[in-house]
Each structure stands twice: as C-alpha cells, then as structure tokens.
Design brief:
Distance between the termini: 38 Å
Number of strands: 16
Shape: elongated
CATH architecture of the largest domain: 3-Layer(aba) Sandwich
CATH superfamily of the largest domain: Zn peptidases
Number of helices: 10
Bound molecules: zinc ion
Strand order of the largest sheet: 1-2-5-3-6-15-7-14
Strand content: 15-25%
CATH topology of the largest domain: Aminopeptidase
Radius of gyration: 24 Å
CATH class of the largest domain: Alpha Beta
Number of domains: 2
Amino acid sequence: MKLTLDDRLMIEDFQRYLRINTAQPAPAYAQAITLLQSFADRDGFSHTTITLSSGLPVLIISYPGSNPNLPALALNHHMDVVPVADESIWELPPFAGEITHDDRIIGRGTQDMKGVGIIHYHALRTMQRSGILPDRSIYIICVPDEEKGGFKGARLLVEDATFGKLNIGYVLDEGVPSGIKDMLYIKVNERKPLQLRILSKAQSAHASKLLADNPNHQLIQFLQHIVHMHTEQQKCAQALPAGQLLSAHITSLSSGFDIDSGVVNIIPETAYATIDLRIPPAMSMQEVITSINLLRDQHPGISYTISAAADERIDTPANQELFERLRHVIQTHGLTALSLDFEGATDLRHYQKTGIQGVGFTPFACIDNLHGTDEAISIEQLIKGKHIMYACIQELAREL
Ligand SMILES: [Zn+2]
C-alpha cells in the first residue's frame, strides 16, 4: 500500500498515542495531553488545557473560523480506554502501538476511540495545510473519564466557563464501526442508563427456622421479574435493533458470610443487588421507574436507590438534519450511511443536555471490536476514515 508523507505521520502519531497507557482505573492523562500538545505545537495550532473541578484535565486544540459569531464545531474524543484483562492472549501487546504483518494497527483504543481522535486531528491538519478557512471555528476536545460515564469529564466540561466562551453549536462524538463494507453508521440516538442498588432487608435468624423471613429469598423473587423483563426484550431483538429495546442486567449480588467461610446456618439480615438498565429513546425514564416502583411495592422488604441516571432529552429532528448532511457527504465518497440508535451511552449526551446538537460518527467499516481482545484498525480504514472525516468536518463547519 502506497503511503503519503501525511499518512505516515498520522500512523506514527497514532502509534505514539496508543503507547500511552490511558486504561482505567489509572489513565496516564498528563502524558497523553503532553503528547497531543506536542502535535499541536509542531503543526502550529493553539491550545488550552482546562482542569475540571474533578481535578481531571481537558485539552482543547483550536482552529479559528472566518466568522467568530457563528456557533463553533467541536470534535470530541475521550482519551481514556478500558483496561485489558489478559495481555498475554493478545496477538501483539495492547499498549505497544505495533502493526501486524497484514497492516493492522493493534492496540487498546484503536477503535474506542484514539483512532477517531487521531483522525479528527489529522483531518484538521489537512484543512489547515491546504489553507482552507472554515466559516465556523473548529475545536478538537480531548476529554477524560468517558469509560466511567463522563461524570468527572464531559459532564463537568459543559458547565465550565472557558468551555462556555467557545460557543459550541455542534459536536461530532464517537459512534461504532459498521462491520459492513462500504457502509458507515451515524449514531443519532442512544439509550439512557439507569443504575439501581437494591436492598433486601429481613431479621437475622438461625437457618433452621422454617418461618423466618429470608432477605435472599425476597431478593430472588424480586429479581425474577427483572430477569423476565430482560428476556422478553431479548425475544424482540430479532426484529428490532438493540438500541431500540430495554435491557435490565443484574450486575452484582451480595449477601451473607463469605462463601469460603464455612458459615452456612445463618440467615443474613441483608442482601444487595445492582441492576443496570438501558432505556431506549421511545421509552421514558419515568415510565421505567414507575414500573420498578410497582414491583417494589409488591415485594415487602425490598427498597432501592438510584445510583446513576441520565435523563437528558435529545432533539431528534435536529439530529436527523445533521444526519442528512453527513449522509450526503458520505454518499459522494461512494459509501452509504445508516442512522443508528446506539445501545450504549457516550459523552454525546452531556453535550446535548446543554442544547448542543450532535451525532456519533466513527468512520470505520471494520468489524466492531470495541473493548475486545486484539482491538485493531487497518491502515487502509484509518486513511479512508480520515478522508471521510475531513469532508464531514468541512460540511459541518460551513455556514448554511
Ligand atoms: Zn468510547
């Protein structure tokens, strides 16, 4: 494959970024920001670093447009990645930025989402070097904490005074690779997380007491309804995309003495569970909470607290308009674009909450291996993705 000097530089920058271990729970943000700043300095972009009230940093790289009064375009990517459970089963080490013999760049974050961040950067670099001045200012925003929900990252950034002054009107955030040749997804909507902590309470007693209340039994009876709710939705997954269905996963259970302690004849006083629900756009958060409340009321001894909930509203018609504009650009590149209701939640929702319009766009047609073993992106896809991103940025930075 023939590579231009610009392609080579993009690949090198990408490899260096992958070598910085920004895996949760201890991402090396300072190192990542130093590297990204060095790219901006090399290429003559101005940049600012904000320290959020959480103590975490955000880097903003700027390319001023010709009309500073127009709402600006933000290209958002998160610097953190998910951890690797077992490095030894990877084809090549996940934090080495190495290239396979068949020209795939392998590493944690290649798809989610350092690869997209590098494409944002190099698309902007191409625009600057071609001497193209967009109507709107463009900002590359590098945020922390997305893999933990963004509550200490994008969620705080949108309330920051420095961010407010940027007058952002549009944002491009992450989507998912399509897995289908010559087709790309544009994420226009996403499910909203609702996370619950369930408590089942009874009186501790000897396990020989027939009539004693048992918090584990109470909890299991309650959870059976949750499992039912979930499996009913799974049955619909043949006909509908997962992003349009409700899911309710029981993610942890705890009660009683440690299983290895040998203590088995005591009925404990409490039992706990956590449930992670994902609510599709067509359902309201309140609707789901009401049905959980009904269920709780039928089960004495059960109570719950909400540990996290995102109930931001999305301006669907505005997203549809953005989608149409991007679809047109993608078509001129000989590809098709499909709109996607996404299963998971991303930082996009934090931006949308403040009225900023945005969609999720990962311009890769490879198999989706987000968070997977041997996460990789081919050099070919990376370069194609950059060209498409460049055209999309030009379109969105244009005054209508
Ligand atoms: Zn991501």
